[in-house]
Amino acid sequence: MATFEDTSVVITGLGAVSPYGNGIDPLWHGLLQNKNCIHRVTELEQLPMVKTKVAATVPETDFSFIPRRNRRSMSKMACYAYVAAQEALAQAGYKEAPENLGFFMGSTLNSISVWMNIVSSCNEGHLELVKTSDFLQIMNHSPLATTAQALGINGPSLGASDACATGLYNVALGYLAIKSGLVSQALCGGTEEYHPLFSACFDIMQAASFHANDCPEKASAPFDKNRSGLVVAEGCGLLFLESEQSARARGATILARILSVAANTETENMAYPSDVMIEKCMRRAVERANLSPHQIDLVNAHATGTIVGDIAESKAVEKMFGAAVKINSLKGHLGHTMGASGALELIACVKMLETGEIIPVKNLETVDERCGTAQYVTQAQQQPISVILKNSFAIGGNNCSLLMRRP
């Protein structure tokens, strides 16, 4: 029986729902074409006290193809997960979920819109209008449970909720579950649905973008000196992980190999990680993979476009890598898809490894001098890359880094 250290974990399937649409192809082509998906939001227009007026939402989708007996208990974010899971399973070579498939998926919050409807019914004295299916949509693990039911996923399931690091944390959990022998295959990632309350909360924290309300395509600008904050978005990203032994035995195509994961907790500030803890997190990931910093080709940064967050991450990258490593962020394209961001961005990293196409930082025109001298990718580049370090950091101090190699 293979030991923890001997078990190699690979990625064999990808599934996505993003502001570019349903599927990996719309996501990847949108990124390659530098396509804008950020737009003004009607609900935010009606809130004069909220400065930000933009978001990136998934195009309207008819989910009637999901069986009604399942769909009636599913929130919008669960429907996103259903679509992404089917795509990841299909690419991995399955028409239905294999036996004892592990399922690791979470979100920042459960469905706010359903919660609001329940509260409204209660305030109006009509508690009898609240249905069982409403409750099933607002459980903390609702997307995980309802998607598992709909797709017959019967292995162990666990939904880590770590705010903006949720997606990457769940991939890390799947990786560890396979390494430990709990399962040989796992579906992992995060899902999120947009509600104006997300934008309002970040606005209150002075972390939401407001400088480009009249030019939404410029609203998210990681590392740029004129950035004013993040743009809230939604979607779902899921990756099919399995032991290399499992993949080889069934002749699956290996898309990438996960080398290591690392995580730590920031204890100084609930809202922003420090460069000290970010650097420690990245270093642990690199050391666990028995690599040296110069062997990392690209850092896919968390970089949301906030003033403090971008500075801290860039300082940590420079401290660890000097100016030798390339660094990019995808939030200028996608906005911040919250609990889905780590997984959706990791999917894009798999595609970058596969194609050698490095996606640039959208809207990075003049680097903030406080963000140091890293090699920010500002133009699309065609260059073979072997190893990517992916970062995700969250409100609450949850930091996660994952190291991945081209097969």
Walkthrough of the structure:
The chain is an alpha/beta fold and 407 residues long. The protein folds into two domains: 9-249, Thiolase/Chalcone synthase (Peroxisomal Thiolase, Chain A, domain 1, 3-Layer(aba) Sandwich); 259-405, Peroxisomal Thiolase, Chain A, domain 1 (3-Layer(aba) Sandwich). The protein is built from 14 helices and 16 strands. The strands form three sheets. Strands 1, 2, 5, 6, 7, 8, 9, 10, 11, 13, 15 and 16 form a twelve-stranded mixed sheet that branches. Strands 3-4 form a two-stranded antiparallel sheet. A hairpin with a 2-residue loop joins strand 1 (9-18) and strand 2. It is globular and about 60 Å long. The two termini are 23 Å apart. 55% of the residues are buried. The mean pLDDT is 94.
Features:
14 helices; two-stranded antiparallel sheet; 2 domains; 19% strand; Peroxisomal Thiolase, Chain A, domain 1; twelve-stranded mixed beta sheet; alpha/beta; 407 residues
What topology emerges from the helices and strands here?
Elements: E1 9-18, E2 21-22, H1 24-32, E3 39-40, H2 42-45, E4 54-55, H3 68-71, H4 76-92, E5 102-106, H5 112-123, H6 132-138, H7 142-151, E6 157-158, H8 166-180, E7 185-192, H9 196-204, E8 235-243, H10 244-249, E9 256-265, H11 275-288, E10 298-300, H12 307-321, E11 326-328, H13 331-334, H14 341-355, E12 357-358, E13 375-376, E14 381-382, E15 387-393, E16 398-405
